[in-house]
Known about the structure:
This protein is of the alpha/beta class. The protein has helices at residues 18-32, 56-69, 82-92, 99-110, 114-140, 150-189, 205-213, 253-258, 260-268, 282-299, 317-324, 346-354; strands at residues 2-10, 35-44, 73-76, 96-98, 194-199, 230-234, 239-243, 271-277, 305-310, 334-337. It is built from 12 helices and 10 strands. The protein has a 6-stranded mixed β-sheet with strand order 6-7-5-8-9-10, sandwiched between helices.
Amino acid sequence: xxxxxxxxxxxxIHDHVAYLVKLRExxxxxxxxxxxxxxxxxxxxxxxxxxxxxxxGKAYEIKDVVDKNKPDIVVFYNVLTSKQRYNLEKLxxxxxxxxxxxxxxxxxxxxxxxxxxxxxxxxxxxxxxxxVKLRASMKYLRHKAGFRGPGEYAxxxxxxxxxxxIKRLRSDIEKIKKRKKMQIDRIKERGVxxxxxSGCYNxxxxxxxxxxxxxxxxxxxxxxxxxxxxxxxIFNGNLYLVDTIGFVLDQDPRLxxxxxxxxxxxxxxxxxxxxxxxxxxxxxxxLKVDMLLRMYKEIGVDSKLTLVFNKIDKIKESRIxxxxxxxxxxGDKQVFYISVRQRxxxxxxxxxxxxxx
Length: 357
C-alpha cells in the first residue's frame, strides 16, 4: 500500500473525543484509496496558521518525518487554503491533500456514469481553481519582462482555459438538470409521492433500495458506490423510491452543493429516509446524527425526515436501548431499527411507506 501522513489542527480545546473520531473516519477513507497511515500529527491552536495551517515549528517537524519516511502524500483533516497548500507542498516536496480532496478522489474512482463524472470534474476544478491561479502566478509572473510579458500571457491563457472548461461543464450539467426537473414534475403531476433514501455512506441505503424495489444495484463495502440517484416505482406504481448519494462526516458544504442534482432529489421528495449504521460506535453515531440533522435543516427538509438505523443484527439487544437514548435530541421524528440483510423490522418500515402512497 501507499504511505500517508495524517495531520490535523484542533481548534477546540474542550474537544477530547470528536477529533479522534474524525481522524479515524478520514483514515478509513484513505484506506479505501490504498493508503496506509504511517504517522499522525495533531496540534492544538486557537486557529490554523496562515502559512502552514500548523505552526511553523510543527511544519518543520512534519518535514523531518516526511524526509525520513518518504510518504506518497501528506493529508490534512483541515480544509486548506491555496497559500497553505502551496507552502506545505514546497516545504515537504510531496503532494498535500485536505479531506475535501480525499473525498473527491474516492468519488472520481467510484464514478461510472456521465452525470457523476461531470459533477466530480466540476467540483474538482472549482476546488483547485484558486490553487491553480496561485501556482500559475508564482510560475509565470516572475518571468514577466515588462508590460504584458510572456509570463503574463501564459498565466492568462491557463486561467482562461479553466474558465472555459467550467462554463462547459456547468452547461452540460444544466441540460441534465432540466431533464431531471421534467421527470420529477411528471411524477408530481400524477400525484405520486417520492421517498428519497439518504444518509451516511455504507449505511445500507442501496441494500434497502434493492430490497424494496427488486432492483440489483451494485452494493459494496466501499464508500460512495452510489453517486447518481436511481428512481424506481413500488407498490404498483403508487410510490417512487430514490436511492441517492451518501454523506461523510464533516462533509464540506461546497461538495454538497456540487451535487446539486442529488439535492434536487432530496428537496423534491415527500419523505426522506435518513439511514445510519447502527453498528457504528456511539461517539461516531452521535456525530453523524448531529451533522445530518443540522445539514438537512440548512437545506430546508428537516420537517420530512424519518430516521432508520440499519444493521441491528450486528449489535446486542442492550445496544438498541442505548441507541434509543439518541432519540432525546432527534425530536419528534419517527425512528425505525432494522436489518435489511436479515429482513428484521423491514415490514414495519414498509407499512410506514405505504401510509404515504
